[in-house]
Amino acid sequence: MGDELVVARDLVKRFGRLTAVDGIDVEVRRGEAFGFLGPNGAGKSSTMRMIGCVSPRSGGDLRVLGMDPDHQGPHVRARLGVVPQQDNLDTELTVRQNLHVYGRYFGLSKAHVRAKAAELLTFAQLTERADDEVESLSGGMKRRLTIARSLINDPELLLLDEPTTGLDPQARHLLWDRLFRLKQNGVTLIITTHYMDEAEQLCDRLVVMDRGRIAAEGSPTALIGRYATKEVVELRFPPGEDPVDVEARLTGLADRVEALPDRVLLYAADGEAVLGAVHQRGVDPVSSLVRRSSLEDVFLRLTGRTLVD
After folding, report:
1. Does domain 4-224 have CATH number 3.40.50.300?
2. pTM over 0.85
């Protein structure tokens, strides 16, 4: 095994007639934070479950930490940390007891688990709540405890499925800081997320998945440069004015013009210049905004704006 901790080639996962993962190639390198982005049903969680050795693949080749998860699952799992989308802590135990019990599952000595638990409580900023029952913790505290618990065995690879879903901005930023520190300490992260700002903050590289396939791969900066422009102009109009009609009046002003039900987007290198040209054509929006392009613009261009159930 070289620098690649996860290597997938033509990886497939089927559930009956449904193909959830349709022949993808993925490499995750040691020490990086790698992201899976995609709408619901894109195949992200199915891929993560195969990497985590809890769902056998239907086809293709997969190596995790140099091993075949279908035949060497226990050996792989012993070197993984997993943060599920929903916290599955034992709410009747204390914070400290959750760490102690989980550590014993890995066959670690009591002395080692006690020392490691104390270290992780400090890392998760939960030392003062160590002897409180989990039920009394806030959502952000529970999430930090779930991440701390996943580190009890000093994993080489940490899998995080939607790690900050449902948290307020302060809790999200604190978790980002904890995850960034883990990466600095050499832990390899694989993350699924619906938050584009989270992917931009945490991921060195990522793939955008759609309908079981990979639509694009690269760093957040590279993907924005490839599929978007430097800036976006957002124009909003009063009720009754059709954005599609407005779009026709703006032809040629930007690299790309997109009419949405409530606004018009113009993608260009110089947003202020485009906004000036909009006014010169006699188009008078109720409000306008010039912003930098983001990973969300890339995501929506690649996967569409239609709601996927």
Report:
1. yes
2. yes
